[in-house]
Amino acid sequence: MKFFSIIAILLFTTIQCQPQDYGVLEYYMTLPDLLEENSGIAISQNKKYLYAINDSGGTATIFSIHLDHKEIEQDISISNAQNVDWEDLASFENDLFVGDFGNNDNKRKDQTIYWVENVDQITPGSFSAFAKTTTFTFEDQKEYPPKKGNQNFDVESFFVHNTNFYLFTRNRESHKKFDGITKVYKIPMKEGAQKAILIDEFETCSDRDDCQVTSAAIHHETGKIALLTYNKVWIFDNYYDDQFFSGSVTKIKLGHNSQKESVTFKDAHTLFISEEASSKTQGNVYTLDLKKF
């Protein structure tokens, strides 16, 4: 009996030690347990911290992970917010923006963006902050929920650019009707109720399981943009003004399937990509070297 137990332990250890296949991604770290439902990440201005949030059901809290220590060093609770369905996190200079706009059923009328200002002045540890708020509705949504065939008002992706918010929809059409279209809306970066104006569309691909946009990011110095799905990244560059799809487009197949919900630029040539936990393992953070593509 003892012999078989030893064999079982050796087999388990051997399996555990096998190198993981992450496709074109490089493993960076495993997310802390508090970020089991990670849905958004953003880099700090000094590049020392990775800010992260959880989606619906979590607390209204932003966590700050030290990129060298790979541990949470700070948590910022937004005192005037609740986490209805937090889906993405964006940064601009020293401000953070939380997108509470998850809308799987396409029937929300209370979608909100929270602003937390001067996060570099918040000390390590636990902290409470009061946020500015922007609420919005879509200019082209007339019914809540819309009829079948028009289920494209869920948002899980946004960034800040030239004093505007840019939101990208996660297409919720059925497998038979899914066309891979993500719509792009523009909202002025102002407090209060705003109208989300449709400015463009982009066709990702036709596989509903792998072509829904789950996160977006912009590198503010170069203007380079990334759109993420579970197994792909699109990079947009050399565009004019906010016509993001008018320039060069690079499609990158990651070769690794998981519930990837978050992307941000580590630098001009590198992405951080993170995933939610699965039933078996906690989610990871990966890097993607864009110079290889």
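(the above was protein one; protein two follows)
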Amino acid sequence: MKVKTILVSQPEPKVENSPYFDLVDKQKVKIDFRPFIHVEGVSSKDVRTQKVDLSQYSAIILTSRNSVDHFFRIAEELRFKVPDTMKYFCQSEAVAYYLQKYVVYRKRKIYVGKRTFTELSPLIKKYKNEKFLLPSSDKLKPEVPTVLDDLGVHWKQGTFYKTVISDLSDLRDVYYDILVFFSPSGIESLFENFPDFQQNDTRIAVFGNTTITAATNKGLRVDIQAPTPETPSMTMALERYIKSVNSKK
């Protein structure tokens, strides 16, 4: 079956040169964006009940833009002035760049990983005498505590925000040829919103091994996967699939 419509379970890209927009132009498909999950900050009172005292930490581990936003939000709510001596360990360049929203980059001690949390670990190991705080969501990737425990560093995780399932009830009678997922939470949201969901001819595209596992555990047929050596990005995987099915007579 040919592909005409795609629903991506994420917010619409804010950049004009997104590869999704190229896909629309090249393959003549319609792509809609809708977050299946969203983030809500927890209160400073909730952070206090977790026995998190910001003044006790000399280094912050930041794994995402959300962790940056909510760390500084909580600091402000608690009237905690983040000292200039604070060290920031950012999982990727994108997170480090985003940090500039809150600190003067060149005046701070910022250490940047390549992409994955494991790739950040050598930098953390160099400063293993620091006291690390990890502000995160309630859904922490299993590798994170494992890596930190293996390093033997003094660290504490604080839940500063939560991943919440979005209300998708308005999509009940809307059909898409492809649904695109990037996390197990997205799969969870699909079945939370539509417990009687039947895949039928809908193609499922997933990014990452944990998302594949979540999809197959729910009995879904995964038609498109990324990253792979041939298609390292989701848009490349989608384009390859669309070309193969839409070219058939």
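Reviewer note on protein two: The chain has a mean pLDDT of 94.
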